[in-house]
Amino acid sequence: MTDWVKRTQPIQIGDMVGYSKRFLQSTGQYTGDAPFARGKVIDLQSLGTDTILAYIEWDKPDLPARVNVKNLSTVKQIQLGE
Asked: Which of 23, 26, 31 is nearest to 54 (CA)?
C-alpha cells in the first residue's frame, strides 16, 4: 500500500472497530455478539484495488478474524450512530 492510501483510508492498524450499522442491518443481525463486538485491527491486507481485509482481535469469541473494511466502522463512528 502506498503512503497516500494508508493516510486516507478510514480503518487503520491499531484502530478499535466494530461492524458497521449498514452491514448489520443488511444481514439482519440485531441481537447476538456481532452488534456489540469490538476489536483491534492488527493488520491490513489488500486483495486488489477495491478489497482490503482487516485482521482483527475481537473481544467476543467465534467472530471471523478477517473482515472486509467496508463492513467495519471505528468505535468513534459507532458512538455517533454511523
From this structure: 23
Q: Distances from the Cα of 61 to the Cαs of 13, 28, 36, 38, 58, in angstroms?
A: 21, 20, 12, 11, 7
Residue entry with cell 482481535: 57
* Domains present along the chain, CATH in parentheses: 3-79 (2.30.30.750)
30-75 per-position pLDDT tens digit: 888 899 999 999 999 999 888 999 999 999 999 999 999 999 999 8
> What string of H, E and C letters represents the secondary structure of the chain?
CCHHHHHHCCCCCCCEEEECHHHHHHCCCCCCCHHHCCEEEEEEEECCCCCEEEEEEECCCCCCCEEEHHHEEEHHHHHCCC
pTM listed for this prediction: 0.81
